[in-house]
Amino acid sequence: MLEVKDLHVTVEGSEILKGLTxxxxxxxxxxxxxxxxxxxxxxxxxxxxKDGYExxxxxxxxxxxxxxxxxxxxxxxxxxxxxxxxxxEIPGVKNIYLLKxxxxxxxxxxxxGEIPAPEFMKLIKEKVASMKMDTSFLQRAVNEGFSGGEKKxxxxxxxxxxEPRLAMLDEIDSGLDIDAMKVVADGVNSLRAExxxxxxxxxxxxxxxxxxxxxxxxxVDGRIVKSxxxxxxxxxxxxxxxxxxxxxxx
Length: 250
Ligand code: ADP
Ligand code: MG
Ligand code: MG
Fold this sequence. Notes:
Elements: E1 2-11, E2 14-24, E3 29-33, H1 40-48, E4 54-62, E5 65-66, H2 72-78, E6 80-82, E7 90-94, H3 95-109, H4 117-130, E8 141-142, H5 148-162, E9 166-170, H6 178-191, E10 197-201, E11 215-220, E12 223-228, H7 230-239, H8 242-249
Parallel strand pairs: 3-10, 3-11, 6-9, 9-10
Antiparallel strand pairs: 1-2, 1-4, 4-5, 7-8, 11-12
Helix pairs in contact: 5-6
The structure holds adenosine-5'-diphosphate (ADP) and magnesium ion (MG) (2 copies).
Keywords: ATP-binding, Nucleotide-binding
Domain ABC transporter: 2-246
Family: Belongs to the ABC transporter superfamily. Ycf16 family.
């Protein structure tokens, strides 16, 4: 589904990704782990098409399409969706309007019409309930006065409503207490589907107790230096990242 090959990315003149290669198949959940500053967020941002990243070498393809040739909106329409690590506040814009606008943009790209209001309300109520959120949440301005946990839930809510093909979640666990993390993890698990892949960026293993990945990749200094199954995450938890770095340098 997604193929990243020998990706080199420069941010403000310094090379951050230094030949990163990664393949993600439909139906799989992949976790990208690694020390701070390794380039994890850069990877998901480049796939999503955020500004400020210069690809100097390599390729990204999504179902055979050249992602690097696509504008950020085209990528979103193709189903490449990145949640926000530190979601921004959008004063005055109600959450529910943003969700509906995003869903209708997606439906338009699929040749469907606008979602009928009753159908939308049914869908949104069901998803809000599944995230153990209160419906009053929908009437609040996007992220205005949201707690950290509410922002994270909102991020998963967006994913549940928009049903992306590749859902990229960056540090979805940061700042969450255990109960909120379980809700968020349940939401992510309910996103699992045969025709969808999930890319989880996480610094800590904790989240992976609840979302068991098919593959775990260790990103160090701009490259994936080791890949394995869920057991690798546990090994990283007990041994840290240094040994992987030493092993890969040897
Ligand atoms: P990670 O998510 O693994 O912690 P990032 O991808 O956020 O790492 O960052 C990788 C490196 O790129 C870091 O050294 C960081 O300081 C640098 N970097 C990231 N974004 C920018 C930016 N917008 N401007 C300058 N440097 C950046
Ligand atoms: Mg190279
Ligand atoms: Mg990061």
